């Protein structure tokens, strides 16, 4: 079994005339928390989306746990994302009409789990993230930090192998952001979840085990943490 759970190999991706990635390679170890840093527009989010099988590269390869992802059909990639990956984005992207608990249970319901079982699995996550009093609040009524904690619970409820987080604290004040990052890191460590975290905030990146910097569409691993 490879030491790496996820790899991008020489990935290129363009949007029209814009070359977002120009040969980015990155290898993520099992169970590690990896931050992807770099200037605005350097290609961080595009790299995350390619690793997660959301975008397909124009050139290069993406591998997840021995499976080549970029050549899978849309249906298989959708299944992979649903079953093996969790996502947290800058703005929680919760369904505002649903309660916090409904939002957390949603991935399980979409995966056709029986209702009772889905809710029984979702409820402890609210407790774990300090949201037990907010379970029946509509997500549109929550504060930014509370909503982001619900988004985190929703991303982790189906026990994903990899959690992808794109600027998960970008819309939060520093203190709230720290709370969310502490919860994210604690839960990921407890669950053994690998985390790929895009951020331009060094305080957020400091939660990671290792850092990759993206510049002009290429990924550079810092020498101190070079991938063997
Ligand atoms: N869906 C898209 N359509 C068109 N251009 C895109 C798209 N996504 C990204 N780009 C372009 O690709 C380049 C890389 O964007 P990307 O979002 O990956 O950078 P980033 O490093 O995550 O930036 P930021 O830190 O500002 O979020 C940018 O020039 C951006 O405008």
TrEMBL record:
Alphabetized Pfam families for the sequence: ABC_tran
Family matches, as PROSITE patterns: ABC_TRANSPORTER_1 (PS00211), ABC_TRANSPORTER_2 (PS50893)
GO function term, MF aspect, one: ATP binding
ABC transporter domain segment(s): 6-228
Keywords: ATP-binding, Nucleotide-binding, Transport
InterPro entries given in the database record: AAA+_ATPase, ABC_transporter-like_ATP-bd, ABC_transporter-like_CS, ABC_transpr_LolD-like, MacB-like_ATP-bd, P-loop_NTPase
Transport is among the record's keywords: yes
Protein's recorded name: ABC transporter ATP-binding protein
């Amino acid at each position: 079994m490879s030491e790496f759970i996820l790899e991008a190999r020489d990935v290129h991706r363009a949007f029209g005339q814009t070359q977002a990635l120009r040969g980015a390679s990155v290898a993520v170890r099992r169970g590690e928390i990896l931050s992807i840093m770099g200037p605005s527009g350097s290609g961080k989010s595009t790299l995350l989306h390619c690793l997660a099988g959301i975008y397909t590269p124009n050139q290069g390869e993406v591998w997840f746990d021995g499976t080549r992802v970029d050549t899978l059909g849309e249906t298989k990639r959708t299944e992979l994302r649903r079953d093996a990956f969790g996502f947290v984005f800058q703005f929680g992207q919760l369904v505002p009409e649903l309660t916090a608990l409904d939002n957390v249970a949603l991935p399980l319901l979409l995966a056709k789990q029986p209702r009772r079982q889905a809710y029984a699995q979702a409820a402890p996550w609210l407790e774990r993230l300090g949201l037990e009093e907010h379970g029946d609040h509509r997500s549109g009524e929550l504060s930014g930090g509370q909503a982001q904690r619900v988004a985190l619970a929703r991303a982790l409820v189906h026990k994903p192998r990899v959690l992808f987080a794109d600027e998960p604290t970008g819309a939060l004040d520093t203190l709230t952001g720290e709370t969310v990052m502490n919860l994210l890191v604690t839960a990921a460590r407890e669950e053994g979840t690998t985390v790929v975290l895009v951020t331009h905030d060094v305080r957020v990146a400091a939660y990671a085990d290792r850092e990759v910097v993206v510049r002009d569409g290429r990924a550079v691993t810092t020498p101190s943490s070079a991938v063997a």
